[in-house]
Design a protein that fits this description.
This protein has helices at residues 4-7, 61-73, 168-185, 225-244, 290-298, 304-315, 319-325, 329-342, 348-363, 375-386, 392-405, 409-415, 424-437, 439-446, 453-463, 470-481, and strands at 11-22, 77-78, 81-82, 85-88, 98-101, 108-109, 112-117, 120-133, 137-141, 144-148, 155-161, 197-207, 217-222, 252-257, 262-268, 278-279, 286-287. It has 483 residues and is of the alpha+beta class. It folds into three domains: 4-296, no CATH class; 302-415, no CATH class; 424-481, Orthogonal Bundle (Arc Repressor Mutant, subunit A). Helix 8 crosses helix 10 and helix 13 (424-437) crosses helix 15.
């Protein structure tokens, strides 16, 4: 059997994703219990979660506001009136025997998620975004199964794409883009290790050139970007090889085993009729009024894709640097604040470079909110470099002191006498001495070994404790070495 790359010349994958995003509320979708991760098992329950007789749901309006933010950000059509339905299935982690979800009247439809694939802007169409509640969690230990209902009733948005994705890599990029978007919006923390974002992938393959979709399988509950890519790659290969050998793909739900790097059948895939949807009689229709929509629209931040394009266009950053700096909203806002404080757009690139190389190194993976210097303080430091008050090398030393003491750059430079030497009459005698002390290197340089210029400039930097103006030093050395 040929390898997957060869097989993909004849076969086209078709992928749709259903992503469950936990909404950042303090209480559950239809009851007052908390949503804190890591609480004692079954400690976040109440009569509604436990489906005790007489308990009635009350919808958490905060969940609606968060879902609307995601709907607006994706350009979705938002229903002025939607309703909840009961989705019936029978698992131990679902005490009611049904899940409150939305069926024929979802909150949002026909939006798009924007992402970058190979540095090209791309839109993935959404079928719908709807509200629902989460189920609990089953854990299995040998022949014993335990049920924790802490997650039962946690509010979710289910974001469902059309079959617009055609590779595992694209699917992983879509997941990253959605993760970035919900965090920008404050809709969700999106911590996949905590189950705050989970993906079900619908995968099929068809001969290239065909219009009809192949039989799809569903991969359930994938909880990392890497596993999304690996699970889909595995499923694409499995289906193609099965079809190449004359077999048929079964419509089924499969469970991805990340440790084994393989999937296994979980159950036959349910059809819509199996869930016996009907409107929830305990919940009135959900109305979205104009005041709520205006509040949501006016509170929207600049979104990740437009922000990245602005950083490239206005700040002159490379695509890769802009992508890194816009990956987290707080990091992008830190750069914007520093540029505003500098009052000079020309400093955007050196500010971005210093953030990427020095500030992120000091943070060591911690969030930018823990930065030891403010954007304004960093802008002052880079301004001193731009105005030739200090060199780039001295700036790194000053920055280290700023991180330790919290002192401002200007104060440190003045106190420690770190101003750059930009007076040629001061530097020339030092250059002449260095040339006189290194006749061998002088001969090699004059013999054509131009790279030795760095040696001479380095000696001057050493003699001035790094205070010599680098460009002036190089120019002086060149002239004196030319004889």
């Amino acid at each position: 059997m040929a390898d997957l790359a060869t097989l993909l010349e004849a076969w086209e994958p078709v992928i749709g994703l259903e992503v469950h995003v936990q909404l950042a509320t303090e209480s559950k979708a239809f009851s007052p219990s908390g949503t804190t991760f890591g609480a004692e098992p079954n400690s976040l329950t109440d009569p509604t979660v436990l489906a005790l007789p007489g308990a009635l749901p009350t919808f958490n309006v905060k969940a609606l506001e968060l879902a609307l933010r995601l709907g607006v950000a994706t350009g979705s059509k938002i229903r002025a009136r939607c309703r909840f339905a009961r989705k019936h299935y029978f698992y131990p982690d679902l005490p009611k025997g049904y899940q409150i979800s939305q069926y024929d009247e979802p909150l949002c439809e026909d939006g798009t998620i924007e992402l970058w694939v190979a540095n090209q802007r791309r839109k993935v169409r959404l079928q719908r975004i709807h509200l629902e509640e989460d189920a609990g969690k089953n854990t299995h230990h040998g022949t014993t199964s335990l049920v924790d209902l802490n997650r039962a009733g946690v509010p979710l948005c289910e974001v469902v794409t059309l079959p617009d994705l055609h590779s595992a890599e694209e699917a992983a990029e879509y997941m990253r883009a959605l993760h970035r978007l919900v965090r920008y919006l404050g809709v969700s923390e999106g911590d996949m290790e905590k189950g705050q974002m989970r993906c079900d992938a619908n995968v099929s393959v068809r001969r290239r050139g065909e219009d009809r979709l192949g039989t799809r399988t569903e991969l359930k509950n994938i909880n990392s970007f890497r596993f999304v890519q690996k699970a889909i790659e595995h499923e694409i290969a499995r289906q193609i090889r099965l079809l190449e050998e004359g077999g048929a793909v079964e419509r089924e739900t499969r469970l991805w085993d990340a440790d084994a790097g393989t999937s296994a059948p979980m159950r036959s895939k349910e059809e819509i009729a199996d869930y016996r949807y009907f409107p929830d009689p305990d919940l009135p229709p959900l109305a979205v009024d104009g005041a709520t929509m205006r509040q949501v629209i006016t509170s929207m931040p600049e979104l990740p894709v437009p922000k990245l394009e602005r950083f490239v266009r206005e700040y002159g950053l490379t695509f890769d640097d802009a992508a890194t700096l816009t990956d987290e909203r707080e990091l992008a806002e830190y750069l914007d604040a520093a540029v505003r404080s500098a009052g000079d757009g020309a400093l955007a690139r050196p500010l971005a470079s210093f953030i990427l190389t020095e500030l992120l190194r000091v943070l060591g993976g911690r969030p930018i909110t823990e930065a030891p210097v403010t954007p304004e303080a960093l802008a002052e430091l880079i301004g001193l470099v731009a105005s030739d008050v200090i060199s780039g090398k001295i700036a790194k030393d000053v920055f280290a002191t700023m991180c330790k003491t919290g002192e401002r750059a200007g104060f440190i430079v003045q106190r420690d006498d770190l101003r750059q030497i930009s007076d040629a009459s001061v530097l020339r005698p030092l250059c002449e001495k260095i040339i006189a002390d290194n006749p061998k290197q002088v001969a090699q340089y004059r013999g054509g070994k131009d790279s030795l210029l760095g040696f001479f400039v380095g000696q001057l930097m050493k003699a001035t404790e790094g205070k010599a103006n680098p460009s002036l030093s190089a120019d002086l050395m060149k002239k004196l070495l030319a004889g």
